[in-house]
Amino acid sequence: MNIRTAATAALALSAALILAGCSAGTEDDSMPGMDHGSSEQAADVNDADVTFASMMIVHHEQAIEMSDIVLAKDDVDPEVMALAEAIKTAQGPEMEQLQGWLDDWGVSPDEHEMDGMDHGDGMMSEEDLAALEAAGGAEASRLFLEQMIVHHEGAVEMAQTQVDEGSDPDAVELAQTIIDAQTAEIQEMEDLLASL
What we know:
Elements lengths: L2 H20 L24 H25 L6 H27 L21 H9 L2 H29 L3 H27 L1
């Protein structure tokens, strides 16, 4: 098992243990890592909800980082620039919403560090980001679109898992919103790629 896989497994295990404690129904519902007042709110939350919120925050962070790289360039296709702005505008507030839920559920920040995410989740490697940083003009536009399509596909897959397995209705609703929005953006990016 590599470090990335182990980190992902550790997150899932810690989430499951925390949530198992919440649903145990004992008199003392204050669990380590959860504040006392969150137990009622967390009653309908399962480990899929926690994993979804945790992973999607990190996923969105990278999408915004990729968008910032492109937006800092002077010679990128204007439609690509507009798309990068739209991604930042949509994903920033979603990150705040996801973090708010984790706070409400009593999940501390160190429990949702997702260093274990990899290309299978649509995440770019350091080398991918460096290539995007170094590229200019049409090459930067093409690379951004290709990378963001893969990134969005990973997000759609994660969100579909939440729709299928999640318990919190608000988190399921957001997951469906992400599926709809990012599927549409994938099509837009594929059309843009074909026109470059």
